[in-house]
Structure formats: C-alpha cells, structure tokens
Amino acid sequence: MERHSGASGVGSRGPIRTIIAAWLVAxxxxxxxxxxxxxxxxxxxxxxxxxxIASGVLGANAFNGGVAAAMLGLxxxxxxxxxxxxxxxxxxxxxxxxxxNRLGTAVGFAVFVSCVMSFLVLPLSNVFHAPFxxxxxxxxxxxxxxxxxxxxxxxxTNYYSTIDKNG
Length: 167
Prior knowledge:
By secondary structure, the protein is mainly α. The protein has helices at residues 15-40, 46-58, 66-91, 102-124, 134-166.
C-alpha cells in the first residue's frame, strides 16, 4: 500500500503500522486504567489483576502461578487488544455508519466490546464467574470508552480519512 502524509502524521503509516499504533495506545491505556482502578477500588492487588486475566486460560491455577502467570495475563491482555483493534480496522471501511460520527463510533464500539467480553468471551473462558454486577459493568464500559473506543477510533479514522483525501 502506498504511503500518504497527513497533518497528524497518521496518514504516513501503512495499515499494519496503523493497527500497531492503535493497538499499543489502546492496550496500554486500558491496562494502565485497570492497574490504577482495581487496586484503588480494593478489588484486586496488581498481580492478582494480571493473574485474573491469565485465569481465562489457566483457570484458578493462575493465582498460584506467581509472576509467570501475571506476565501471561499481560500478554493475553495485549493479544485481546490487538484482536479488537484489527477487527475495528477491518470493519471501519465496510460499515458506513461507523464513519458518520467519530465520538458516537468510539462510544458504540466500546459498548460493543464491553458487551461481547462480558456476555460472551468471559463466560466461555475459565475465569471465576461472579454474579453479574450492573454497576461494575457500567464502570468497565465507561473505562473502555476512553481506553479502547477513543484511541482505536481516532487512529483508525485518521488513517482512513487520509487515504480518502489522498487516495
């Protein structure tokens, strides 16, 4: 794919570099928010947060896995963020609705990610299944709006906007 330049510098990236940029920003923002919020809220110690992510694959054994399980959890977190970033990058040009309002798209995408993760991915994984808590769901969704929805939408829409202008 041909490289294009734009005022934001985003257009100078090809599709792979755009996905990587959006992924790293969103993945890092999300894990940072979780790493601050959950220990302050008294729900988990930091290592337990990462082990909890790993428990999706390892089950309860993740909490006996020490730092290795925590590192696996961090790796899995970034893998999930990469999957969501790539998904959005691929659907964005195909769904014209996503191109109408950047903020609305960011919020809608975050709500979609939160619902899929909460009601499909997590129940099918090996994580501990606590009773559904609507307040926690709303807080998590709000966090995803700022850490997943906005960064991914901004980077991806900037890329496609530059392609459209120059392409």
